[in-house]
Amino acid sequence: MSLQTAVAYNWKTGHVVKRFRGHEREITKIACIPKSNQFFSASRDKSVLMWDLQGSSQPRQELSGHAMVVTGLAVSPDSSQLCTGSRDNSLLLWDVGTGQCVQRASVSRNLVTHLCWVPREPYVLQSSEDKTIRLWDSRGLQVAHVFPTKQHIQTHCDVSVDGHTCISCSSGFGGEGCEATLWDLRQTRDRMCEYKGHFQTVASCVFLPKSMALVPMIATSAHDSTVKIWNQDTGACLFTLSLDGSGPLTSLAVGDITSLLCASFYRGVHLLRVDCSRELELQEVAAF
Question: Could you tell me the residue range of the domain that residue 177 belongs to?
Fold first, then answer.
């Protein structure tokens, strides 16, 4: 399969729904517009394309404005704006309806690794290769807060559904770095907890739905081919699943209240099932 192709799957069956071809280089990120059939793809070709699952196989929009690979995509809660970030140290804010760039900001050495929008707020969270996490105010696209600098590159970030906390994760090797960090978004904005146990770069971190268990949990995936589930409050590792032969694990997404999707270098997308009927357990159900 071409790395320039976006593929939509029925994640419950593994069946391919549609393929989208339009980028000239590898796709780096995907972001869906909530409650719609439309989504965006970012690429190393410096562009962002908008697609429609139910429409033409041709892109609806092409957004060009970055000077280097696009590495961050975040759609606003009301779906009216898209924020993009790049290794060119810049963030751009786009009007989704018109496809026009309405704001641009740049911070020296701010090589963006991921973006996510804070629910019900005008704020965008951003992780960076300069080892920091930034909170941006989209009303003028200015930095509202910079969290304390970590020791390693921050590879990914996620925001809780209530918008009160966020998590970021770190690069590393041999257990040095390789952690996820919980931050307070509302009060002191200090570090609240750390999750240590991976042995290589942690590439993705997500909050799990509260309905999955009695305690709040997060999940991480790493280049050491493991997915770990953690007690959000205590930092205790509750379960580790090894996906041997899959190579580095690159991203995580919540499917529903019992399912996780995990992308890997060598075996595509893994469908994982969270079982809390007895003790917490994470199982691989399928790969496609």
Answer: 147-288
Strand 133-137, strand 226-231: pairing:
unpaired
Closest CA to 133 of 123, 121, 124, 125: 125
With a CB cutoff of 8 Å and minimum separation 6, the contacts of 13 are none
Give 2's pLDDT tier (boundaries 50, 70, 90).
low
CATH number of the domain encompassing residue 180: 2.130.10.10
- Angle at alpha carbon of residue 141, lines to 46 and 45, rounded to 5°: 5
Assess if residue 168 is contained within a domain: yes
Strands (E), 160-248: 165-170, 172-173, 176-177, 179-184, 191-196, 202-207, 217-222, 226-231, 237-242
By CB atoms closer than 10 A (0-12, 13-18, 19+), residue 105 is: middle
3-state helix, strand, coil in the chain (%, to 5): 0, 55, 45
The pLDDT score that the predictor gives to residue 23 is 96
What is the C-alpha separation between 181 and 192, in angstroms, rounded? 8
